[in-house]
Amino acid sequence: MIERISRNDLFNVRTGWWYVAICVCLITLPFLGLTDFNTKGEPREAVVAYSILSQGDWILPSNNGGEIPYKPPFFHWVIALCSLLTGGEVTEYTSRLPSALALIGMTLGVYAFLARRVCLGRAMVTAMTLFTAFEIYRAGMNCRVDMMLTALSVGAMLLLYRWWERGMRGLPWWAILLMSCATLTKGPVGIIIPCLTSGCFMLFRGMPFLRVFLKLAASGLLALVLPLCWYAAAYGRGGEEFLNLVMEENFGRMTGTMTYESHVNPWWYNIVTLLAGFLPWTIAALVALFLIRRRKDEGDATPRSWRDNVSAFFRTKNPVMLFSATCAVIVFFFYCIPASKRSVYLMPMYPFTAYFVAELLIWMSRRKRGSVLGLGDAFGVLGILLFGVFCLVKCGAMPEGLFGHGRHAAANAAMVESLASQSGAAAWICALVPVCAAAVWWGAVRRRVQRSQTAVAAATLLCALYIAFSGTYQPGLLNAKSQHPLAREIMSRYPDAGTGIYEFIAMAEEAKGNPVHFFELDFYMGDPVRNFLREQPEAGYLLIEPTDTAEWLPQFGKRGYRFQLLREPGAAEAKHTPSLYRFSR
Is 530 helix (H, G, I), strand (E, B) or coil? Predict the structure, then answer.
């Protein structure tokens, strides 16, 4: 089933591999540490790795005043190892590096898989559209477990396909290892998805049900061995609290029986997020649907029943195409089952959906080339417009009315001011990259590029846009929303806060299963923040939501506490910025 590749073809495959590798590395690795943490999700994962290194506990470390992690530890282990290799300090760069490496590895793995089974052109276009799809790119630049889970799950699916190609002899040990790591990243879904998708594909190709079931069941059970070792060790540390957490996060989330609502969305939410997550290629796919004209079949006058048609489709269709369709469809419908839905849950279907997007782009390049060239033109114009706006911001020529007049006006103005305050040549160079790429596109590439390379050339223009986005615009805007400066301010003004600072968040106390903390401050201060209500200390500093002060401070006053306001959040600061009090009793 695997086509032979000549030495010349292998050289082309290797050249394409290096081209894809350079592109994906250029838009990720240089920029991982430029943007401070500005949401609760990233520092929540990073602080677990911090506690692993500070406590020396690689099984079940505690953080945020005694809380155990809500996810298995593989992702945090990789962060900790990356931090050890780069000096022993957990930073934004080392925290995001595992996700970036997972994105790079998955992209190159998909490219190599397709280059040896389909053709070089489809492999390159699929790989380029995959890592430039906004949802995938964003996940590869974040300190979250989802990109790691996706890469491990997709890798296991591809290895199971290779195992099927080779007659399902023995057991797929490399796929088993990846499924073990995926389970240690986010739970049993790391085994369920690869086995379910691959098993359905094998059945569609006519493999005996019993053989498929027994082989994949054995593989799934073996993939559980390493995770169960960790679960047993963690249960020995955490007891019933850990067991209840595991049951809620894995089974409660799937059955909708969690003690708190987590990302509850309707069924159509997955459709909307898939279309949004595949931008800008969603636009090209929608255009292609209007360009394709149906042709009536000719020459086959023998009518066949619908069963014969379905059987013929599954047994004679290109196996890679059938495999991609099976994986994409099953992943999509699998994540329609739970009430909890997030856009990142669908990421394991992106490599297989990208295969069909690539088919559309290749068809458009051959039949309707102007549409793909127009997409490249749009990327070039967008890069030039963004650079023009950046120049206006740096010159202070942006009208203040653009910031709005409501409650977000001050925050918007702070973001623009942060973008304008960027210094150094790096920000200018990154912002200029799309402009230079557009000049090359219109000056040398657009008229001379071969039809088969049009989509790759347009995707390369998109890579230039991502370089400007990650190197200039994103850090310039989002650093204004980070609480990193506030953490530095607290530690410099109140040095004793490092040993006596507490938090109170009413929502977290009322919804016991919802791990809400001041994650950014806790990470940037070195994980000193503890729970005020649980520990009831005699004196120290309190971080509290401004909306909670009117109700709760008087109640704490009845218990003998006296509070002195030290700092309130400013109008330009992020909405989740707490107030700071000194207290005693």
Answer: strand
Q: Which of 449, 482, 515 is the last residue of a domain?
A: 482
Three-state SS for 580?
strand
Domain span at 406: 368-482
Task: Name the domain boundary from 466, 482, 498.
Answer: 482
Comparing C-alpha atoms, which of 503, 518, 507 is closest to residue 574? 518
CB-based burial, 524-554: b 16+ in 10 Å, e otherwise: bbebbbbbbeeeebeebbbbbbeebbeebbe
Q: Assess whether 206 and 162 both reside in one domain.
A: yes
Domain count, the chain: 3
317 alpha-carbon distance from chain centroid: 32
pLDDT of residue 367: 85
Asked whether residue 178 falls in the same domain as residue 263, the answer is yes
Mean pLDDT of all residues belonging to the chain:
88
- Answer whether residue 299 is part of any domain: no
Cβ(157)–Cβ(355) under 8 Å? no
Distance, CA of 39 to CA of 18 (rounded, Å): 34
Residues 472 and 537 in one domain: no
Provide the pLDDT for residue 483. Answer: 92
- In tens, the pLDDT along 519-566 reads 999 999 999 999 998 899 999 999 999 989 999 999 999 999 999 999
10 pLDDT above the threshold of 60: no
CA nearest neighbour of 204 among 94, 107, 323: 323
Q: In what order do the strands lie in the sheet with 579-584?
A: 530-531, 501-504, 539-544, 579-584, 562-567
Give the pLDDT mean for 348-376: 92
**Cβ count within 10 A of residue 210:** 8
Q: What is the pTM of this model?
A: 0.92
Residues 6 or more apart in contact with residue 506 via CB below 8 angstroms? 545, 548, 551, 552
The β-bridge partners of 564 are: 582
Domain identity same for 344 and 405: no
How many whole angstroms separate alpha carbon 205 and alpha carbon 323?
Answer: 10
Query: Is residue 571 exposed (0-12), middle (13-18) or buried (19+ Cβ within 10 Å)?
Result: exposed
Strand partners for 264: 340
Query: d(Cα 401, Cα 416) in Å, to the nearest integer?
Result: 12
Q: What single string gives the DSSP state of each residue in 123-136?
A: HHHHHHHHHHSHHH
Query: Is residue 472 in a domain?
Result: yes
Angstrom distance (rounded) from CA 452 to CA 11? 18
